[in-house]
Amino acid sequence: MIEKIDTHLLINGKKVLGESEKIALISPENNELIIDVPSASADQVDAAVEAANAAFPGWKRKSFADRADRLFKLADRIDEKAGFLAKLESLNCGKPYQRMLEDEIPAISDHFRFFAGASRCMSGSASGEYLEGFTSMIRRDPVGVVGQIAPWNYPLMMAAWKIAPALAAGNTVVFKPSENTPLTMLALADDMIELFPAGVLNIVTGTGRAVGKQIADHDKVQMVSVTGSVNTGKQVLSSASSNVKRTHLELGGKAPVIAFDDCDVDDLVENITLWGYYNAGQDCTAACRLYVQDNIYQEVVEKLTASVKGIDVNDIGPLISEQQRETVSGFVERTKTIPHLNITAGGNKIDRGCYYEPTLIVDALQDDEVVQEEIFGPVVSVTRFSNTDQAVEWANDCKYGLASSIWTRDIQKAHKVSSLLQFGVTWINTYFMYASEMPHGGFKMSGYGKDLSMYGLEDYTVVRHIMVKI
Ligand code: NAD
Fold first, then answer.
1. How is 51-97 classified by DSSP, letter by letter?
2. How far apart are CA 264 and CA 252, in angstroms?
3. Contact (CB, 8 A) for 350 and 332
4. Of the residues 372, 381, 419, 424, which has the fewest C-beta atoms closer than 10 A?
């Protein structure tokens, strides 16, 4: 049981109820109503942007140490409330509580701590006399008011990826969680009020169509950062053109996993079983597109089939909504009509909330929809390949470019292939390992802009040249 669910927005340091349409949050666990969340009205979104704009000069003037101190305190609050936040996120998304508590919360507080410290260590070119009689130096300054728009798959984690670098760098923020998953961010509003000056961080809820678009359109917003689908990214880009906003886009993914015949098959199978289905596959880096070399193809298919059949759905959770389950089901039902494709595990809805069976589709060909399109559900495809060139060509033959992995005991081959792949991350003999210090971001339609790492921090700054005549 959750003691208290807060649905107030945070605008200019005050908690206020949304004045526009109510959005019903439905539990993916059992399809029952969790709570109605009133959305921000257009006037409230405007007020949030105005507040962020008014707070910007003061926040920018604060020392890095001062801003960092507040972010460290926020990280501590998140750790103190770990159990409550994990319960709330689990209620809202259906995520397994233990996963949220043990995997996500520690990473979330670490992101705030990393950016708090990193903001005090930014580096750049040396100052000097690049023209005789003139000294040049480089500054990195905050951009201004940043609009940040998040998806529903890792609500608090995506908020941390966005808010921590933006605030650490001295920007002020208007943050919009997904309309499906606003609860954990709203639950932190009291902490934000205590830790940050009014207007530095504002939280408004509502649909992308209304609230998200208004933020992306707003002429006092200087940068917009969105994590979401490709379509949303395109719409935000077109909104951003109105005042030539900076944009930071993290969009979809369809991660290839290349398994060479000298790899450790058992290790591969264990990792795909974990990371192809984690969070019910609702992950832009999910290990969902497996390419397996001829000699081990049969062995991998047999072992992976047995392993996927053994997944306990309580460990991966449901899909976020009935609509998302319908989308996933649509992909699998179309698969059933294609003669060369075989479903060796799963393939059906489960008669419980928005759950779907962990599904394995084998003998897939490069042009198949299940190989090309992001399914965003617990569905993995397996395709046979014969040589390295073919594996690289097929892996890269995709509109996305976010995550990839290579499985081989040959380190030269691993490095050669990783140099040929066009993905923001390539894991070698491992999967889904994130470090706050290392960047996350994509190629192609996966978008651009980096989350995490010094690169993420730099994305929320503008490089300036200052020259003085001496
Ligand atoms: P979505 O695109 O439907 O929504 C994302 C956010 O954008 C939501 O807050 C939504 O309200 C808002 N939005 C929608 N239309 C908008 C508009 N026109 N203007 C402004 N805001 C708008 O995505 P989703 O369904 O919440 O999340 C799933 C998608 O996110 C998948 O495609 C997934 O791959 C992607 N994703 C990517 C990453 C990454 O790091 N690259 C991480 C997580 C999720």
1. HHHHHHHHHHHS-HHHHHHHHHHHHHHHHHTHHHHHHHHHHHH---H
2. 29
3. no
4. 419
250 is catalytic: yes
pLDDT value at residue 213: 98
Question: Taking CB atoms and a 6 Å cutoff, what residues make up the pocket around ligand 1?
Answer: 149-153, 176, 178-179, 207-208, 212-213, 216, 226-229, 232, 235-236, 250-253, 284, 374, 376, 402, 446
DSSP state letters, 356-406: B--EEEES--TTSHHHHS---SSEEEEEEE-SHHHHHHHHH-SSEESEEEE
Q: Among 184, 229, 321, 438, which is best to mutate for testing ligand 1, by the most ligand atoms less than 8 A from CB?
A: 229
CA–CA distance, 321 with 325 (Å, rounded to integer): 6
Q: What's residue 3's pLDDT?
A: 72
Supply the pLDDT for residue 88: 98
- Contact yes or no for 115/164 (Cβ under 8 A): yes
**Rounded to whole angstroms, how far apart are CA atoms 201 and 89?**
21
Q: Low-confidence residues of the chain, pLDDT below 70?
A: 1
**Cα separation, 89 vs 381, whole angstroms:** 29
Whether 395 and 256 have beta carbons less than 8 Å apart is answered as: yes
Give me the domains of the chain, ranges plus CATH numbers: 9-251+446-469 (3.40.605.10), 256-434 (3.40.309.10)
Task: Supply φ then ψ for residue 280, to 5 degrees.
Answer: 55, 30
Tokens at 317, concatenated = 């959770």
Rounded CA separation 90/183 (Å) = 10
Residue 319's pLDDT is 98
pLDDT tens for each residue of 155-196: 999 999 999 999 999 999 999 999 999 999 999 999 999 999
